[in-house]
Specification:
By secondary structure, the chain is mainly alpha-helical.
Amino acid sequence: MAQAKRLDFCDMWHLLETYRYEQLTEDITNEVLIGLFWEESTFENIREQDPNGNNAVGFGQLNTREMWRLIPSLKGQGICDPVSGELVTRNEHVANVMLADNSDCVWYTTQIMVEFGNRRGKVLSGWANGAASIVAKWEACEKKLNIEDPYSDDWVKEPRYGHVIPRRAIVAEALNLARPGASQNVVGCVPEW
């Protein structure tokens, strides 16, 4: 499998706009998912090996022990593990499917949120293992990215995909609220004005 590459904000936003599971409740906003994905993986579709066996994968660092929820859907679609070539029947197969393709990672991460109950409070609290301080970081990022005035000068059109998003300084500040370290490499795709 190819080495994971950190996505920039524009790529991550485009994946959420394009591959978000359509049944996911609208109150789990793309803005809060940006905070979650930045805090969990800094926009890298990676596998985390925990010495205690709590392995996680993807942008949202989904615990592999929870992936059984996706097996019936994947198996019913005839999806095969890209590593073994076998029909998806195990958690590890689901992890490999997610790690192999960024769009699948977003799709299945947001699909499992529906499987977790599809209610904002329940999903976010569960994802953070009940740590309200972590959820607060995601929500602070969300709040910063939400610009209520549709005519505000803080909106810019990014050239790669054509999405209208907050300007660079706002994106950098929002990401840093979720997790410090938003460098120019991550936000440089976003126009400042």
